[in-house]
Amino acid sequence: MNKTLLPQTFIDFISPYLPESENLQDFIQSCSTPLRKSIRVNTLKVELEAFKAKAISKGWELTPIPWCETGFWLNRPQAEEDSVSLGNTVEHLTGQFYIQEASSMLPPQALAFNNSINVALDVASAPGSKTTQLAALMNNQGVILANEYSSSRVKVLAANIQRCGVNNTAITHMDGRLLEHLTETFDSILLDAPCSGEGTVRKDPDSMKNWTEKSVHEIAETQFELIQAAFKALKVGGTLIYSTCTLNPYENQNICLKLQQMFPEQIEFESLANLFEGAGECTTKEGFLHVWPQIYDSEGFFVARIKKIQAITAPETIDNPFKKLGKFPYQAISKKSQTSLKEYLSKQFGCDNFPFEACYQRNDDIWYFPPAFETLKGKLKFSRVGVRIAELAKHGVKPDHALAINFSHLFTKQKIELDKSAAEQYLKGQDIDMNVSELAKGEIVVTIQNQALGFAKNLTDRLKNQLPRDLVRDNVKL
Predict the structure, then answer these.
(1) Which of 168, 169, 246, 478 could form a disulfide bond with 198, CB atoms 3.0-4.6 angstroms apart?
(2) Which UniProt keywords apply (predicted)?
(3) What's the pTM?
(4) Cis peptide before 127 (omega within 30 of 0)
């Protein structure tokens, strides 16, 4: 091992593939340099210019990321760095930005480039950076099938989707190879494939400790199976983005070229040389982006954009698990339930424009489903769809936490702005002593920086905390 934590076997392996315009020592030196912090502003929660103004007032230095209008490298004052972690800032806790490596913003941008997205698939979506970025690019319209194979990561995915105010996702938990059975279903697909992670050593110094050339070829086999499945699920005329955070050609160019060899009449590679100013510096002859860490002082990344120009008739390679799904357990909201919820929202929050046409019901639970969900209904089994709104209990409506996070911008009353001290109490799960007699009794939305934190119940002389226990942060310091 050398000081960069790159095994010499890896350096010997990768050096022949370094572009002629790049220097091996520059690459090694770059890998030994700590990664710059970067964030992506979440325009589902805050307007870009408003966030930039807020950042300036806080003394934050934002350096634009060339390929993402809402992405920035971030420098904070040292005193703030020492006292408050970036993840504990008000802006992060309320979903106004996502802590996301700059290079990982490339795949969603490449998918949205000159492309109208309506029914999208994110094959390997946890922890949610690219799913939430896609949702913002789609302005919460259409639908995103957010799939994740790892059960331990599905919960993190769901939490980030909720924090960012995303409404247009349906979450599934399955092996991405099974998605081949959703033949020609999606107009846009993002496959950020599991990989050997050769481009991530600046973020994770241990990422290359167990690297072997054998493991590269083993994971490439899985990647090829995944890209085949994704291509089968893509509509004719649709766009597939294949990306990795690794550097070798076996997991990158070769996967795409092998797919082209399999479907020569159906595939067209679309160049990404014009994705952003200067993209040509890292564009291969096929039009793929191959970002080495030293080019933009970022992680290493690979991105290919593939167009499906003809239908394929390839046979299914694995048994179809979606043949016998049973009856879909949700129904369109009943008139009675809609009336009850409509009256509650109007009386309690002055909300008279809730999108009930997108609401579904399962027993007493009411859900908001993505605008284009009908396209996917009945085709596969879901872990979670859309946003849980409320429960119609015997003694009235019980609003769900997500109703505040995702839809309180539609409320015209029953909101109260907290200062940092009170917001800390709320996030710690504590009740807040304060006189709120000017507001009606019952549920109110507590906010900070005009961003919803959740619900509390107005008891006149105090606010009874209704933050879900799994969201309580005992050590939060704003």
Answers:
(1) 246
(2) Cytoplasm, Methyltransferase, RNA-binding, rRNA processing, S-adenosyl-L-methionine, Transferase
(3) 0.96
(4) yes
Domain count, the chain: 4
Distance in angstroms (rounded) separating the CA atoms of residues 310 and 237: 8
14 contacts 198 by C-beta, under 8 angstroms: yes
Task: Given the residues 164, 245, 351, 359, select the one marked as catalytic.
Answer: 245
Type of residue found at 323 = K
> 395 and 304: one domain?
no
Residue 83, marked binder: no
Q: Is 245 a catalytic residue?
A: yes
- Range of the structural domain that residue 357 is part of: 331-369+387-406
Residues 23 and 119 in one domain: no
Is 377 a domain residue? no
Residue 227 CA: distances (Å) to CA of 109, 123, 255 = 19, 10, 8
Q: pLDDT by residue (tens digit) across 335-345?
A: 999 999 999 99
192 is in an annotated binding site: yes
Q: 267: which 2 tokens?
A: 């595939």
**Residue 183, in any domain of the structure:** yes
pLDDT at 17 over 60: yes
Reference 203, options 100, 97, 128, 108; nearest CA is 100
- The answer to whether the annotation marks 206 as part of a ligand binding site is no
| Residue 239 tokens, joined | 């766009």
Q: Is there a domain that residue 191 lies in?
A: yes
Give the domain CATH number at 64: 3.30.70.1170
Quick one: 247 and 188 in the same domain? Answer: yes
Is residue 126 annotated as involved in ligand binding?
yes
Amino acid identity of residue 340, one-letter, is: S
How many helices (H) and strands (E) are present in the chain, helices listed first? 14, 23
175: annotated binding-site residue? yes
In a domain, residue 37? The reply is yes
Per-residue pLDDT tens over the stretch 41-78: 999 999 999 999 999 999 999 999 999 999 999 999 99
Determine if residue 419 is labeled as part of a ligand binding site: no
pLDDT digits (tens, 9 = 90+) for 155-183: 999 999 999 999 999 999 999 999 999 99
pLDDT value at residue 297:
95
Let me know whether 158 and 266 are in one domain.
Answer: yes
DSSP reduced 3-state for 453: strand
Q: Are residues 364 and 460 in the same domain?
A: no
Cβ-based neighbour number of residue 294 at 10 Å = 19
Residue 23 neighbours by CB under 8 Å, 6+ apart: 294
Can you tell me the mean pLDDT for 239-244?
A: 98
Is 148 marked within a binding site?
yes
Q: Which amino acid is at 475?
A: N
CA 400 – CA 387 distance, rounded (Å): 9
Residue 116 sits in the same domain as residue 155: yes
**Is 124 found in the same domain as 145?**
yes
Tell me whether residue 398 is annotated as binding: no
Would the CA dihedral through 71, 76, 80, 84 be positive or negative? positive
